[in-house]
Amino acid sequence: MAFTSIIEIIVFLPLVFFVPFPTVDIWYFLIATTILHGFYRYSVIASYNYADLSFVYPIARGGSCFIIGVISLFLLSNNISFFGTIGILVTCLGLFMISFMSAKKFNQKGFLLAILTAVLIATYTIIDGIGVRNTENAFTYIFWMLLLNGIPMLIYALISKNGFRKKNTYSLIEGTSAGVLAILGYGLVVWSMQFIEIAYVSSIREVSIVLATIISLYLLKEKAAAKRIIPSILIVTGVTLVYFQIN
Predict the structure, then answer these.
(1) For 84, which of 27, 67, 165, 245 could close a Cys bridge (C-beta 3.0–4.6 Å)?
(2) What digits encode the pLDDT tens for the residues 126-136?
């Protein structure tokens, strides 16, 4: 996580000088998303100390997808159609199925931390979606957001005994790769929220779990991945329904 932050800073520190400076109103969004991303990244790390990734990650993603859908319907007055709502719910169902089919037994601490992570993901996603839509230049918001988001975790890694001091627990290559992928992945998500509903973006991005299932089954030869085929079909069905609701 700390290496991801370093890569984000290295890439975007020079780029922010090539876009208009954020207005005061936009700084409220940037500060809020920076704080939330700090708690989110810590929550992710904490949750993996209590439960497997295959249990925590789908709950966090499915929960955030569901929360964003509900908020979009009842609070944001977004243009979410009936079939779009069904698509979001089917996607969430597939994600939850993957999680609970992967778990050997119910892990209460892991579940609660995954739900907390879901709430944090949903909150910063909505803030970023609204923020980028209200910025005159979308790159202004995206560049500053990606520059600032990693700073809380970087500070934590510098002062914590479980951070950079544990030199045998991290890799420069893995950290750099994660940083680049984080930039491309979430940068594209925020960019796309200018054009389509935030809830739709949140659902469509979960197709990544389907790709992970295919990789696990055919490339890594993980037998347990076969259990995720039906939930993956549900996710694809949900994402397909959402896709055809986009104008």
Answers:
(1) 245
(2) 999 999 999 99
